[in-house]
Amino acid sequence: MGKVLIIGAGGVGTVVAHKVAQNTDVFTDIMIASRTKSKCDAVVKAIGNSNIQTAQVDADNVDELVALFNSFKPEIVINVALPYQDLTIMEACLKTGVNYLDTANYEPKDVAHFEYSWQWAYKKRFEDAGLTAILGCGFDPGVSGIYTAYAAKHHFDEIQYLDIVDCNAGNHHKAFATNFNPEINIREITQNGRYYENGQWITTKPLEIHKSLNYPNIGPRDSYLLYHEELESLVKNFPTIKRARFWMTFGQEYLTHLRVIQDIGMARIDPIDYNGMKIVPLQFLKAVLPNPQDLGENYDGETSIGCRIRGLKNGKERTYYVYNNCSHQAAYQETGMQGVSYTTGVPAMIGAMMFLKGIWKRPGVWNVEEFDPDPFMEQLNKQGLPWHEVFDTDLEL
Ligand code: NDP
Known about the structure:
By secondary structure, the protein is α/β, with parallel strands linked by helices.
């Protein structure tokens, strides 16, 4: 049915490739391209399907992307490289008539700042070209938005309070490691916190607000208020929301390491001069930290990510909690990657499937919650990320 090009052969790219290869009724031709071709070849070897093609591409370079798209002629590109490449890949899609999907919004390399404005600015150009761009189709952003859309469609007349809760209760048995690209992860966590209340954005100091929350099958975990990109699109697309927040769990060990990394200047993203060479401390740190792709084998425990929602149905207040728990070991057994890569890669594959089946095909640039959530929710149950619902419980928030 469809020709797909996956860009990026990291933890998430590896999961996307496995899941795409499991759904050959939808994905008939597959290519994985990344900066380092040997990593793409290793993914194909692990999957054991020699029909998957591989290629080298520098996704910062529009001309290289255009040449690759023109030779492979994909219908859709799944961008699971880094957020820095979003705009170059979107440009190349427009030049070659290819549809687009990603899991993280654009971020410039030299400022630790992310927002949708850069990608939303492409809406008219994608519309005019008759092409679909699906933004933020991982777990969070991604499933968090689809859960919200599903809640709005089936369980609420008015969503008023939304808390996205992201718990990683896994243990990789390393002193310190990040679960996805360390550079992107540390930039995200060391930023100011931010949440939405009564039409305004309220800024907090990094990790200033925290609270113990109970997660299903896990128990209580210290959860920290962070700014997360889907808050921006969700409050726009669901204007009845009075307050929207995002919470993520961190252990004390992790936070202590993070504080030291910052205190000694290793989280800096400005280039410094070292022996006549320009190096960015955070990029150097990434090179010495464990590779998130290698964490899977010894990872135990699970993730639990969901939406806790309060609002009105038939004039009465109700609460709703929808979540998925994902076992790191089960993810590893299936794909060789840990749960964080798995929970991101599976929704990216499903988003591309929704497009190729014609269900999520609409010229323009869209966030996932703007599409019908039902067929996506159905696939989550079939593709390894089953969800559960709890009604009228104490949300703790
Ligand atoms: P990794 O660092 O493991 O992988 C990134 C891949 O992109 C690598 O293969 C890398 O190549 C490749 N790459 C980087 N720069 C370029 C370039 N210029 N040209 C071509 N390829 C390039 O990251 P992850 O797999 O952990 O994360 C992938 C994406 O998923 C990120 O954007 C991240 O923000 C997002 N994410 C989204 C989540 C969600 O829930 N929405 C959760 C987790 C991650 P090389 O190997 O040569 O470095």
